[in-house]
Amino acid sequence: MCWLKKFGRELVLIGLGGVALSGLFACREPNAIQKETRFIMGTVCTIQIPGPPAVARRAMAGRRAVREAVEKAFARLEECDQKFSVFIPSSPVCRFNQQGIPIDDPEIVALIAQACEVSRLSQGAFDITVYPLVELWGFYSGKPRRPAPEEIAAARGKIGWQHLVITNGQVTKKNAAVQIDLGAIAKGYAVDAAMQVLLQNGIHDALIEAGGDIFALGQRNQKPWKIGIRHPRQPGLLDTLEVSDRAIATSGDYEQFFIADGARYHHIFDPRTGYPATNLMSVTVIGANATLADAWSTALFVLGLEKGMKLVEEGAVRAEVLMLTSQGRALSSPGLKTIPGP
Ligand code: AMP
Ligand code: MG
User: Fold this and answer.
1) For residues 229 and 296, what is the distance between their CA atoms, to the nearest angstrom?
2) What does 240-258 look like in DSSP terms, one character per residue?
3) Of 7, 72, 97, 279, which residue is least crowded by CB atoms under 10 Å?
């Protein structure tokens, strides 16, 4: 089903699982001079450069320059995957996890430092050392299951961002059992990195998306980008945002989940309990960069409504947020401007 068509051609939808996204990308976009989708980082990534072609041609010396810029941006997304993946055996993250080899790639060290800062501010709700839990619950193997309480207790013993040590440009671990998973922050980082590549190549209007993390660069045909946020349970939209030069990230309990005995178990864990966080259905964060929007959407999802909104009000999270509680109540931060649906 083509959601884009249903809600008007200008609208871009986020907050979707991969399957729904493929429907979105199948839609025709007559004004886009370049729109391409590839499967990178285990998710659907799309780069869209808006038209009309004549304007873009004048500004950027033609379609070939645009194509080359998009190609370089995709190459950057691939490079991020090679660095941050927990699945690629040669990735520094994988080597750190499996063999305890310290990480000294400055880009990865800096990202881990940012992740630890979000851990500190969220009092451990965000924690990249959740790897043992994600593995235990079967979300890496694609065969999720509900573990026994003793297994969860054992996995929790291997978790704690304080076990990571960042000194002299290196990340090491105090506890050999500690393993990291940058899945809650690396996609946002990759989106920021690809956006920088587009800017360096003369492109100032673009939409970059990696599995629900977006950067809306500049404008779409002289107007802000319109981003629709899909309701996690119902057909249609939770809200619509108009944004320019803003990142948008959504974390939800509907991206990867299974149902057992009538209960929903999903892929975002409360590191303090070892179980999926239960307060919210989705959190959308709108901020200046996709790295932090991504990290905070996960962190706030775990923290829940009251604690999460408190951090936003106090300024620890410098972004606007939209939360949907598990009872279906939608609440947003005061600065968030949504536009009426189509
Ligand atoms: P996101 O979709 O950005 O919310 O990221 C979810 C992914 O981050 C999961 O698939 C896990 O790999 C990882 N993750 C799960 N729970 C946490 C957590 N509390 N802190 C950091 N990463 C997490
Ligand atoms: Mg995230």
Assistant:
1) 17
2) EEEESSEEEEEEETTSSEE
3) 72
Q: Is there an atom of ligand 1 within 6 Å of 159 CB?
A: no
Ligand nearest to the CA of 271: 1
Residue among 86, 94, 159, 181 whose CB has most ligand 1 atoms within 8 A, to mutate: 181
Q: If you take atom 2 of ligand 1, which residue's CA is the nearest one?
A: 251
Q: Which residues have C-beta within 8 Å of that of residue 131, sequence separation ≥ 6? A: 86, 97, 179, 180, 181
Q: Is the peptide bond before 235 cis (omega within 30 degrees of 0)?
A: no
User: Where do the domains of the chain lie?
Assistant: 92-181
Alpha helices by DSSP H, 85-139: 92-99, 106-121, 131-136
pTM reported for the whole predicted model: 0.90
Would you call 238 helix, strand, or coil by DSSP? strand
Query: CA 98, 101, 102, 107 torsion: positive or negative?
Result: negative
Ligand 1 atom, smallest distance to 119 CA: 20
Q: What is the residue-level pLDDT of the chain in tens, covering all 342 positions?
A: 222 222 234 455 554 433 223 222 333 445 556 789 999 999 999 999 987 655 555 555 567 788 899 999 999 999 999 999 999 999 999 999 999 999 999 999 999 999 999 999 999 999 999 999 999 999 999 899 999 999 999 999 999 999 999 999 999 999 999 999 999 999 999 999 999 999 999 999 999 999 989 999 999 988 999 999 989 999 888 999 999 999 999 999 998 999 999 999 999 999 999 999 999 999 999 999 999 999 999 999 999 999 999 999 999 999 999 999 999 999 999 888 766 654
- DSSP-derived 3-state class of residue 103: strand
Can you read off the two tokens belonging to residue 268?
């975002």
Ramachandran bin of 328, using left for φ above 0, alpha for ψ from -120 to 50, beta for the remaining angles:
left
Q: Is the CB of 119 under 6 A from ligand 1?
A: no
